[in-house]
Write a structure and sequence with these properties.
The complex is a heterodimer.
Chain A: H1 9-36, H2 42-47, E1 51-54, E2 63-68, E3 71-77, H3 80-86, E4 118-122, E5 133-135, E6 150-152, E7 159-160, E8 181-185, E9 188-191
Antiparallel strand pairs in A: 1-9, 2-3, 3-4, 5-6, 6-7, 8-9
Chain B: H1 12-21, H2 26-35, E1 38-40, H3 49-68, H4 78-87, H5 92-120, H6 128-150, H7 155-167, H8 175-183, H9 190-222, E2 245-247, H10 248-273, H11 306-314, H12 318-330, H13 335-338, H14 351-372, H15 377-395, H16 397-403
Antiparallel strand pairs in B: 1-2
Helix pairs in contact in B: 3-5, 3-10, 4-5, 5-6, 5-10, 6-7, 6-9, 11-12, 11-14, 11-15, 14-15
Classes of the chains: A alpha+beta, B mainly alpha.
């Protein structure tokens, strides 16, 4: 090689590294909009906004269902009798203290609720996702003499008590999930948000 | 295949390469098409546009895939789904602008790429098949753009489709049935939209990809032409490589990377600052939903079709107009056989070819401009003049390319080290 043709290897190496690093940075920045476009769109977020529910008309012992983010939400107006059974069930339950189950901090208590009078729970069985049915009457003929009242999932027979806590010896592993929610006032609940504007 | 290495000298990475090569011609492919594919060393500015065209194809496919994730191909929902993408999908506006700008960029790049062929005789023997594949790519690209343009279901989309599909009605005997068959309905409807969606999203992209592969394979079989029109394979060194050739990788991979970067600078300037380009890339009329009862005041195809549209409008007879418009595109296919010159490159041709090529280029641009204007008598007459010049380029070519004075083509390419 002549003097003019000698390769400056260190300069070549520097240029290669600098170009490659810049190229990778450019590729990463270009990927961001495409990957981000998979996040829920503004329309999805609007449709998934918190839902206001009027609970003042629910009879004691009755339940209503509303939809939030495509899921059924159970709202149960519990009677004192229903609440009294909850403390007696601990050794029949898989997760009586809700240690493994999913709920906001304010629902990690025996009644799994902000206000014990109302249960707000996601109506999706924690086994494989079916919608449990309400079997609030105690001593139900199908479910046995010691049935205290609660929810029964028809798909694979999972059972939950009146605080949505799962019984032992059923396929479901966890208590029913509690969504974020708060009381706007005594008669209205906002499901899907626990702070922030109505 | 490489001989097996001495025992104990192969790295783990090398062993992996060997494993693959025993089952798939990976290293051989890299040699044949990149590291030991010799291209002329005198490529200039005009040689960027092939790799840029491939790059834009990739951009269109990726942005198109992401648009398809949110677009709804029904007459009911299409327009609203585009607005949803623009307003509600995160970064949807950017993905849409990339795709709409990319469509125009594709045609700019492809027209310049084709013009290079005219400058340097890249279509001449033995490269006729490369040129034919390229022309098929151009036809597919026009169809792809046309089908894609209906998808937003704007008013220009609707009426553009209406006009172009009804052109086929000019064909004698079968015309009307053909038009109904293309539409799938008695008018441009939801049925038409859905089938154009299928053609645009998968049928034509597949065809394009296969044609591009064939185009590049045909090129690599013969080797690239160059601005001097010298066949570099005629003079080889003792190593068996053309004296005037350099391996495509790393020389042209690096050079094309520079081209890509500059292209991206311009491309990004457009998508971020002027994606509508004054109504040339995104037409104003298309911001209104399709209305079968109201044609836009000023109907014109997108800019890249306007040269041919001007020719169509210049002819006062419907069938003849359609035929001449078709001939304007099809004429390119015959170039390898119309051109009787003994030299390839414009650098060694006489003034006749230069004059005709120059007038052709001017006519193409002028027709493009005229196609965008309303069809006033003045503009129509001008379009007739330029259409005649356009066709003379092809019709008279067998004569002027033979009569032209040519100069001596050098043995070696003209190249100055820098």
């Amino acid at each position: 090689m002549t003097e003019a043709e000698k390769v400056d290897n260190s300069r070549r190496h520097f240029l290669l590294v600098a170009t490659t690093v810049t190229g990778i940075a450019g590729a990463a920045m270009t990927a961001v909009p495409f990957l981000a476009s998979w996040k829920p769109s503004a329309r999805a977020q609007a449709l998934g906004a918190p839902v206001e529910v009027d609970i003042s008309k629910i009879e004691p012992g009755a339940m209503i269902k509303v939809e939030w983010r495509g899921q059924a939400i159970f709202l149960v107006h519990r009677t004192p009798a229903m609440l009294a059974t909850l403390a007696t069930l601990n050794d029949r339950l898989r997760d009586p203290g809700s240690e493994q189950s999913e709920q906001p901090a304010y629902a990690k208590n025996e009644t799994r609720a902000v206000n014990p009078e109302f249960l707000v729970a996601v109506g999706v069985c924690t086994h494989l996702g079916c919608a449990p049915m309400n079997r609030f009457a105690p001593k139900d003929p199908e479910l046995g003499a010691d049935w205290p009242g609660g929810f029964y999932c028809p798909c694979h027979g999972s059972k939950f008590d009146l605080a949505g806590r799962v019984f032992k010896d059923v396929p479901a592993p966890l208590n029913l999930r509690i969504p974020p929610y708060r009381f706007i006032n005594d008669g209205r609940v906002l499901i899907g948000a626990d702070t922030g504007a109505v | 295949m490489n001989p097996p290495p001495a025992a104990g000298t192969r790295t783990r990475w090398g062993a992996l390469i060997d494993w693959i090569d025993a089952r798939f011609p990976m290293t051989q492919f890299m040699k044949d098409h990149a590291t030991e594919y010799y291209a002329p060393k005198n490529f200039n500015f005009w040689y960027y546009f092939g790799s840029l065209a491939l790059f834009v194809l990739v951009i269109q496919i990726i942005s198109g895939i992401f648009l398809t994730m949110n677009y709804k191909p029904s007459a009911q929902d299409a327009f609203a789904s585009v607005e949803y993408i623009m307003r509600d999908v995160e970064w949807g506006w950017l993905i849409r602008y990339i795709h709409s700008t990319g469509a125009s960029a594709f045609f700019i790049v492809v027209y310049l790429h084709m013009f290079r062929g005219l400058l340097y005789g890249s279509y001449k023997n033995p490269r006729e098949l490369i040129w034919l594949f390229g022309m098929l790519i151009y036809l597919c690209l026009m169809a792809e753009a046309f089908f894609g343009y209906l998808l937003p279901w704007g008013n220009m989309s609707y009426w553009g489709a209406q006009v172009i599909v009804s052109l086929f009605g000019a064909i004698p005997y079968v015309g009307e049935s053909l038009v109904e068959w293309i539409r799938g309905d008695y008018y441009i409807s939801d049925i038409t939209l859905n089938r154009f969606f299928a053609l645009h999203v998968i049928a034509l992209p597949l065809a394009l990809v296969f044609l591009v592969i064939a185009h590049i394979f045909a090129l690599h079989e013969v080797g690239s032409n160059n601005p001097d029109g010298v066949e570099i394979k005629k003079l080889k060194g003792s190593d068996g490589h053309p004296l005037d050739g350099i391996p495509f990788h790393p020389y042209y991979t690096v050079k094309d990377l520079v081209g890509v970067i500059i292209f991206l600078m311009v491309f990004c300037a457009v998508i971020f600052f002027s994606p509508e380009m004054g109504g040339y890339f995104l037409e104003h009329a298309n911001f209104d939903p399709a209305n079968p009862l109201q044609t836009p005041e000023h109907i014109a195809p997108v800019w890249y079709f306007t040269p041919f549209y001007a020719i169509l409008r210049a002819v006062p007879n419907k069938l003849l107009g359609v035929s001449l418009m078709g001939l304007a595109v099809v004429s390119f296919f015959f170039l390898p056989w119309l051109d009787r010159a003994k030299v390839k490159s414009i650098r060694y041709r006489g003034w006749l070819y230069k004059a005709f090529l120059c007038s052709f280029a001017v006519s193409f641009v002028a027709l493009g401009y005229l196609g965008l204007q309303p069809a006033t008598p003045g503009y129509t007459n001008a379009a007739r003049v330029f259409a005649i010049i356009y066709f003379m380029f092809f019709l008279l070519m067998p004569w002027y390319t033979r009569a032209d004075r040519v100069s001596q083509v050098p043995e070696r390419v003209t190249y100055h080290a820098h």
